[in-house]
Amino acid sequence: MLHIKSFTFNPFQENTYLAYDDQGEAVLIDPGCHNSQERSELEDFVLSNKLKVRNLLNTHCHIDHVLGNAWAKNRFKIPLWIHEKEIPLLKSVEVYAPNYGFQGYESAEADHYLEVGQEFRVGEESFKILFVPGHAPGHVVFYHEKSNQCIAGDTLFRGSIGRTDLPGGNHPVLLEKIKTQLFTLPEQTIIYPGHGPATNIAFEKIHNPFVGERAFQ
Known about the structure:
6 helices; globular; hydrolase activity; single chain; RibonucZ/Hydroxyglut_hydro
């Protein structure tokens, strides 16, 4: 069974996720923890549940999703995985982080690159890597087919979609990829977004004002 624990961190109210199997094998996804209190909250959960964090994944590399990358790599001695198209975004964070008040931001380089269609192991479980650009050029999502759970980053939110006015954003591409990559998943699939509450495919196909049925009425 795959378990997913969410945390909400940093001033952007970003959702950080730990995904782990019944044996405690875990991956950390989009660590937004940027201060000692947030890092302690995440670490305490790992320790109290005796999790063994093996890998660090980024859905994409905007600042709010990577603030804890360097800390997590060092604390858990784990490699960072991103899509290769996210390299420029990841490198740019070090340049603009002070503009957002993150004077002590520490950069972290990727160790490996995620491949579209790849099965990424989480102990006895596995995610399928889906490519959903538009919010960011190399944005990926992690879909657990057995339980119909999807960690979707900033692609699809409850009643909204990821913004596309940032560098590398593309509104038509995001709409098309949501329809072809996410809306083709089973309707009961739970979407764990990068911000805000979880949702599901059935609800968004009807009610989402950007890509749902109501968008075309």
